[in-house]
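Dear support,

I submitted the protein below through the web form. The confirmation email said the job was done, but the results page showed an empty box. After a refresh the structure appeared. I'm attaching both so you can tell me whether what I see now is the final result or a partial one.
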Amino acid sequence: MNELKNKSEPFRLLVWGRNACFTRPEMKVERVSYDVMTPSAARGILEAILWKPAIRWRVTEIDLLNPIRWESVRRNEVGEVIRTGTVKTAMKRGRGNLGIYIEKERQQRAGLFLRDVKYIIHAFLEITKEAGDSDNVVKFQEMFLRRVQKGQCFHRPYLGCREFAAHFKLIKKYDQLPELLDETRDLGWMLLDMDYSKEAPETCFFQAKLEKGRLKVPLLESREVRS
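What the results page shows now:
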């Protein structure tokens, strides 16, 4: 397939919310957010609006519009899940206890979340090997634009954690971008995404830097990406 026909025009999606938590994987118990939205979280928002096996989202840049503010919260979480083996056993026997007693499994955990966030996601979609004969870039491009304008989504997009709902709005091709936050800082190693092209999925990181409010995102295949 021709490369130009395999790739859509760039999209700009404005997203915002009351809170966000893009959890740092090195934090084992407490939830501590990265300073800025991660590319994988941005991809998750786009896939919540439109996802098909025939397409793949590529995030190229993330713009920061609001100052980085923090909020510390202590909350109760359930520290246990229903095990798959227990469910299978109950299905075979036709009976079993599949309940979780919150009083026994409750755990109090601290979280350091972001507050009053607003970003612009720059991304494009490309056709994958799963595409059929009737699939093409224009079809999915128009589908995405239509769904965004109507506020449609497969599930509510969220900002890192499902309890932090994301609002979204399309910035049209010729619309002027909002003013970016004049912030430059080294963000260190940041989660880029999961690489599913190998037999065992690998977690990929990149050296992230915020330059005048803009985070540039490398391709997963780039040399600067580490797993």
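Response: this is the final, complete result; the empty box was a page-load delay. The first helix runs from residue 3 to 6.
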